[in-house]
Predict the 3D structure of the following.
Amino acid sequence: MSTLEIDRVRKAYGHLEVLKEVSISIGTGDFLVLLGPSGCGKSTLLNMIAGLETITGGQIRIAGKTVNDLSPKDRDIAMVFQSYALYPTMTVRQNIEFGMKIRRIAQADRDRAVKTASDLLQITHLLDRKPSQLSGGQRQRVAMGRAIVREPKLFLFDEPLSNLDAKLRVDMRTEIKRLHARLGTTIVYVTHDQIEAMTLATRVAVMKDGVVQQLDEPQAVYDRPANVYVARFVGSPAMNIVPAVLGAEGATATAVIDIARRPAARIGGISLSAEALRRYAGRKVLVGIRPENFSIATASAAPALTVDFDVVEPTGPDTLAVFQLGGVEVTARLPPRQAHAGREAALAVDTSKIVLFDSETETRID
Amino acid sequence: MAEALSQSGKARLGRLFVYGCLVVVALLYLMPLWVMVVTSLKPLDEIYGGSFIGVPKVVTLDAWRAAWSEACIGTECTGLKPYFVNSLLMVIPAVALSTGIGAINGYILTKWRFPGANFVFGLLLFGCFLPYQAILIPMARTLGLLGLAGSIPGLVAVHASYGICFTTLFFRNYFVSLPDELTKAAMVDGAGFFRIFWSVILPTSIPIIVVSCIWQFTQIWNDFLFGVSFTSGSSSPITVALNNIVNVTTGRKQYNVDMAAAMIAAIPTLVVYIVAGRYFVRGLTAGAVKG
């Protein structure tokens, strides 16, 4: 059992509060990604889980045991750092062994652990090299090896891929996912890269200014963002947030969106609870539409709006078309060769994927 | 073609001028050393015969032998040997102590920061600018109270404590460039304060240890003021003994012995530079450039 509970944890440096009552709870084998921009407190939180930062308020429990006052070595954790933090004067083998030596584990057991970890990570041929003789990806593997031999209850990763080049980053991402699948250990992983969060996590905590904005499965975070901030942070290109006026038509809502020099677009059939419908009917809301939820209107997909494309950016698998909607710039992800700059186009919208936000609080309306 | 030739001719002339200047300056700079070496190898009569710069007609090591083991210092005619030993007994513990304490100070000031760490570091820096003369009387009083006055251990204490400011500065600036994640990783691995220092931090610090040792060795070995102030008689370091050899003579001034004695006093620092010099420059510039 290796659960992690973060219970109303606060962190303050003097009067500066960097974490405000953060509560996160994950189960055994979960892969929790703390996602947010720099300065949102995610690394501070990770360091607090590790025991490298003190906890101002609240409790952190690992496997049900409160660890607030335990030193890092007594928390049964292992950590991989952004800079890898390999000991520069030790060989790869000594780096991996260091923690076991301190815990006075017998030589034979150490050798076995080093062998298992280095086989798993395919670094056996590097064991006698110094870190300075390794490439970035190899250093990354060694850092993970050092963590694995600890056999901890909890793995902590602090932006482990951000020092790698783009190609290697994708490879190592897959590697980490595979490792998690094989070891099944609970992982907490800090990143500012929403793709890493989407691909790796079983649970994502999106953070901003020391507050968890949403804690959910990655797909749920993507499909049903809790607020406009999360909607914009997760997904690339970001979710389009368009001002509109909400109308009620029977049991469903209709968003009325202004389009310059054209009649207003009416996107109907948005499902909404009866209570929200009553409350927001006739009021301003924000409509969230993912770029891929637009499509070129066909006989089966009736046109919802007619727009003029400003810019068209082919990316290969699809084309990004940019146009004005409701006074803001909106991006649609369309199949290649279907969009042309300067032309008008009739677009359909997948209304089942639309998310509505309150125009003042910017939180999701259900 | 002709123009190109004259161009290269001009360049060669310029180069010749540069090298010429360098050679002249180098010779000028080496002149005193030359005079010292040849004088120490000449018999006294030859020197008084007026040969000062020239090559010795008779090469003899008598003056060196006299300086090492026969010359009279005060009333004792023991040569420099016992004072050389005194200096070694002083310099080795003093260098080791000041470097060791400086390393731990630097380690704490960078990796185990505490409130007011910068203030403490500022105070220590201030110590670098204290002139020797300013601390003579308080130090004499302190040594007296500690019962170390006039002894080699007392001198070790003076040099070690005076050197801590410099060594702390060296180590602190070196450790600042080591990533903090290194210490954090070691903490997660279960290492404590001293284990991290010994196993992780110190092995990466060879260049700055060498810098600190060379710096402290030269400072302490060459020091005269503390030596003459805090020791007397047979516990003097070599610099004080050298002064006594040169200044206290009866009869003819023995230039050859004086020169030999001066060189004996200078040899250890030279050796240290030659052996560890390449680390010196590397250590001083470490942190300035990554790599």
User: Anything to note?
Assistant: The CA atoms of residues 5 and 11 of chain B lie 10 Å apart. DSSP finds 13 helices and no strands in chain B.
